[in-house]
Design brief:
Largest sheet: 5 strands, mixed, barrel
CATH architecture of the largest domain: Alpha-Beta Complex
Order of helices and strands: EHEHEHEEHEEEHEHHHHEEHEEEEEEH
Number of helices: 11
Number of strands: 17
CATH topology of the largest domain: Spore Coat Polysaccharide Biosynthesis Protein SpsA, Chain A
Length: 342
C-alpha cells in the first residue's frame, strides 16, 4: 500500500536509529545487548514497537552499527537494514541514512526517530503532518512534546512565531538545572523528542559547512568509510539543527517518554501496593520497602527497609542506585568502559 506524504506524491521513508547502546540502563543494556533490543515495558522489544509504530510509511529503514546487524534483522525482518560504517552518534548516522535514502527513493521525505522511546497514542497523524510541513516548506522539522513536569534530563525547544500546524524554533536549550526547567515549562517550551522529518535537499543544505561537511563530501565521492573516519561523534542536534536557520517544530500529540534511565519505569509501569515497580523476570519479596524499581533476568530479589532504589540484576552484574540519581549511571558506565568491563 502506498502511503505517500499527504497532498504530495513523495514517498515517506521512516528511518529508525538503532545503533546506540543506552548505557544509562546498565546492566540490562551493555555493549553486546543494546537498549532497543530489550523488552522493558511490555512483551515486544523497544525496536519492534518502534517499527510497528511507523508501519504506515512507504518504507522503514533501520540504521544500526555492524555489531548489531544480525540481531536487528532477526528482530524486525520486515524492515530494511542500513549498516553505518561506525557508531558515531546521530549526526553521522542520519547524514548517511539521508544520503542513502535519497539514492534509493524518488524525491522522498525522511522521518527520523529513535528506536528506544515509549509512545502511547496514534503517532501517524502527527508524523504525517510534520512530513507535509517538511515537504511544503523545505524546513527541518523537529517534533516537540508538551512537558508534564520540569524534567532536567531532556533538552528543550523554545517555540517562536506560530503558523498553525507548526511554529518556528526560536532556540534549542540544553538539559537545564531544576530551577531553569521549571521556568521552561512555565514559558511553554517543549521537550525535544529527538524525532525529525526533512527532505534530503533541506538536510544537505543545512549540514554543509557543519561538522558533518567532510562526511557529506565523502558520501558524494562514494567513500562512506573515509567519511566516517573524517568526522567525530556528534549529535544531529548540535551538528545541524542548532546551527540551521530554517527549523520548525510540530507538537507531538501522543504520550511520550525517553525510557532512558531506570527511574523512567516508575512513570510507565504499574506499581504494587508498596509502590514498587518490577520489570523483566524478577521475583521480588519485600519487607517495609517502598517506591523501588526492580529489574532482572530471572533473579530473586529481596528488599528490606529501603526506599527509592533501583535494584537491577542482569547476567553477572548488579546495580543499586537511588532512583533520583539514575542519570548518574552514565558516569559509572564511563568508568567501566575505561576498565574494559562494559
Amino acid at each position: 500500500m502506498v502511503s505517500a506524504v499527504p497532498d504530495t506524491d513523495r514517498p515517506l521513508v521512516a528511518t529508525v536509529l538503532a545503533g546506540g547502546i543506552g548505557s544509562r540502563l546498565y546492566p540490562a543494556s551493555r555493549s553486546h545487548r543494546p537498549k532497543q533490543l530489550l523488552s522493558l515495558a511490555g512483551e515486544d522489544t523497544l525496536l519492534e514497537r518502534t517499527v510497528d509504530r511507523v508501519a504506515f510509511a512507504d518504507a522503514v529503514v533501520v540504521v544500526t552499527r555492524p555489531a548489531f546487524v544480525d540481531a536487528v534483522r532477526e528482530t524486525v525482518p520486515e524492515a530494511s537494514v542500513l549498516v553505518e560504517p561506525a557508531g558515531k552518534d546521530t549526526g553521522p548516522a542520519l547524514a548517511y541514512a539521508t544520503h542513502r535514502i535519497e539514492e534509493r527513493f524518488d524525491d522522498p521525505v525522511v522521518l527520523a526517530l529513535p528506536s528506544d522511546h515509549y509512545v502511547d497514542g496514534d503517532f501517524e497523524p502527527t508524523a504525517r503532518r510534520g512530513a507535509r510541513v517538511a515537504a511544503e516548506t523545505d524546513a527541518l522539522v523537529t517534533f516537540g512534546v508538551e512537558p508534564d513536569r520540569p524534567e532536567t534530563g531532556y533538552g528543550y525547544i523554545e517555540p517562536g512565531s506560530d503558523h498553525g500546524d507548526y511554529a518556528e524554533v526560536a532556540a534549542f536549550h540544553e538539559k537545564p538545572d531544576a530551577e531553569t526547567a521549571e521556568s521552561y515549562v512555565a514559558r511553554g517550551y517543549y521537550w525535544n523528542a529527538g524525532i525529525f522529518t526533512w527532505t534530503p535537499r533541506a538536510f544537505r543544505e543545512a549540514a554543509e559547512g557543519t561538522p558533518l561537511g567532510p562526511l557529506l563530501d565523502a558520501l558524494d565521492a562514494g567513500d562512506a568509510d573515509g567519511g566516517f573516519d573524517a568526522v567525530d561523534p556528534v549529535s544531529v542536534d548540535y551538528a545541524v539543527l542548532e546551527r540551521a536557520t530554517d527549523v520548525v517544530t510540530v507538537p507531538l500529540d501522543v504520550a511520550w517518554d525517553d525510557l532512558g534511565s531506570w527511574d523512567a519505569l516508575q512513570r510507565l509501569l504499574p506499581a504494587d501496593e508498596d509502590g514498587t515497580v518490577v520489570a523483566g523476570d524478577a521475583e521480588v519479596v519485600s519487607v517495609d520497602a517502598e517506591n523501588n524499581v526492580v529489574a532482572s533476568d530471572d533473579v530473586h530479589v529481596s528488599l528490606v527497609g529501603v526506599e527509592g532504589l533501583a535494584v537491577v540484576a542482569y547476567d553477572d552484574r548488579v546495580l543499586v542506585v537511588p532512583t533520583e540519581e539514575a542519570q548518574r549511571v552514565r558516569d559509572l558506565v564511563a568508568t567501566l568502559k575505561e576498565r574494559g568491563e562494559f
